[in-house]
Amino acid sequence: MDRNILVQWATAKVVCDARNERGLSQVQLADFAGLSEPFISGVERGNTGMSIGALVQAAEVLNTDAAELMRRILEELKRGPKQPEKSIGRPAKTEKKEKAPKAGKAK
Fold it and tell me: Taking the alpha carbons of 63, 67, 70, 76 in that order, is the dihedral positive or negative?
């Protein structure tokens, strides 16, 4: 297996776990860190690598430091990271909105 892919998978798990521990959405992490939501989504899906600069920015929002995130990534690499599960799109909303009645023609 390509080492870069394994690093991306380990990074995906660590960033996602750290974000969830803080109770943040991907959008919040991206906004607070000055990164884009598609970038954070790509990182957490294991499709996008993360630069040291981006890791430092994310770490600040996650109330940790980049060294701690790197330590966790290295631990995950030793365990043998698994490919992140892929979900398709956003979850469907369970509530259905009632349509407003159409206005009739006045006579």
Answer: negative
pLDDT string in tens for the chain (107-residue length): 688 899 999 999 999 999 999 999 999 999 999 999 999 999 999 999 999 999 999 999 999 999 999 999 999 999 988 888 876 555 555 555 555 555 555 55
CA dihedral 42, 46, 52, 57 (to 10 degrees): 50
Q: Which of 85, 84, 77 is nearest to 6 (CA)?
A: 77
Q: Which residues contact 14 (CB under 8 A, 6 or more apart)?
A: 69, 72, 73, 76
Residue 77 has phi, psi (to 5 degrees) of -60, -40
Domains assigned to the chain: 3-78 (1.10.260.40)
Q: How far apart are the first and last CA of the chain?
A: 73
Cα separation, 58 vs 33, whole angstroms: 5
